[in-house]
Amino acid sequence: MEEKDSLIDGYMKFLDAGKTERECCARIVSMAKEHGFKNLLETESLKPGDKVYVSKWGKAVALFQIGSGSIEDGMNILGAHIDSPRLDVKQNPLYESDCLVYLNTHYYGGIKKYQWVTMPLAIHGVVCKKDGSTVQVCVGEKDSDPVFCISDILPHLAQKQMKETASDFIPGESLDLILGSEIPPARFKDETDSDSKDESKSDEEKSLKSGEKAKKNILKILRDSYGIEEEDFGSAELEIVPAGKARYMGFDRSLVLSYGQDDRSCAYTSAMAMLETAAEKRTTCCLCVDKEEIGSVGATGMASHFFENAVAELLARLGNYSELTLRRCLNSSYMLSSDVNSAFDPQHSDLYDKPNSSFLNGGIVFNKYTGSRGKSGASDASPEFIAKIRGLLSDAGVTYQMAELGKVDQGGGGTIAYLAAKYGMYVLDAGVPVMSMHAPWEITAVEDLRQAFAAYKFFLTAD
Asked: pTM, whole model, 2 decimals?
């Protein structure tokens, strides 16, 4: 599989450029503009063939292409999420302890905390200042950048730690990044004394040699490099993610290793399918939302009115808005909830019901229901809709597999499907199988990405 693959090449670049929901949203909007999409809110009227997008706070985005049929007959929607498990920086995060400077964090989403220690990490995000300006931050991705790390206990002293459960031996409050360091004062006492008497040194230079000198030095770097003061952390949104690029995995290059493939593997293939497929009778939509990993909450999550409001704006510009038309449109829509499924792991086969598992290289995965144990929190898809999608993809020669997440009593998970289903639309979870899901580095298969892309394209043209 060493030949040039534009889809996979583009996907890996997307992963590198989009390690946060803001970065993903910006990239999707940029791609949409390159394909002729215009800002819906800057458009006065719409007609069949028009392509528009709308974004919420730069963290969620919906793309639409107007079909030739009545909007009341519904849309074909691909719905994915663009947030991923990570560490978030707290509001008052910067502190010094014994000559090391730390950044205090709060983990986001379902992670195994122990996986995030002793690995190179990067800082991505924005700092919003009181004057209304916004500073973009991305440190740790360039070869010339420093990286950051969370320390761990050496095995020689870890007897107590090794006896604790995996969920406890790395407390959440210990997931603090090391940002910098300083020589302990006793080791440069003479230098400090001489510096204090050196009239050529500024007060700032002298102050760095006494009392939280390492923290003061980091603050000076932040101020000089970004114009950021310590108080600006209070209005910042900084995310800690693994440093490094997406890579092919395996001698045959059949796999992709990267951070954030849940759910960006489905978000990218959905967006590309949308950009490369002309709407026919039914209006098409690609919806990429935030906050799925913590319950789809907030103004940019699927539980918000973002999507509903976007469709209302669309109807208004079609000259056909009414509350009833909006309800009929949503109720008559089809949606593939473009989200990943757990790939069968032969090293941990006891966690899976093998006949009902998804496999790497097995194609796009249909998951009739998600939820936990007794289907708690599930969106149970209609068999009639599943049959329709099966027939569509079989005729198109697209490879698919039907699966669950794992054994019933082992746990479970959810997607945005149940939130779309509340409108009465047909919804089916359909996405890429992922191994090591929610780990800092996740594994997908090139073949599955290709099949998902093909499936999404054919779905968009379904009548």
From this structure: 0.92
